[in-house]
Amino acid sequence: MDPELMKVDLDSMYEAGLRKALFLEVNIRVPRGPVDFMSEEWTEPAAK
Q: What is the domain extent for residue 38?
């Protein structure tokens, strides 16, 4: 996860009128990735 690219995405969403987001962990038939949902590694890039 690249903090700079996340900022680009979030800025684009804001410009499109999106002001809120809801993050959900959905594990139905989806392989688990290398980063745990809401772990420090997951939240740290968004905090920058």
A: 3-47
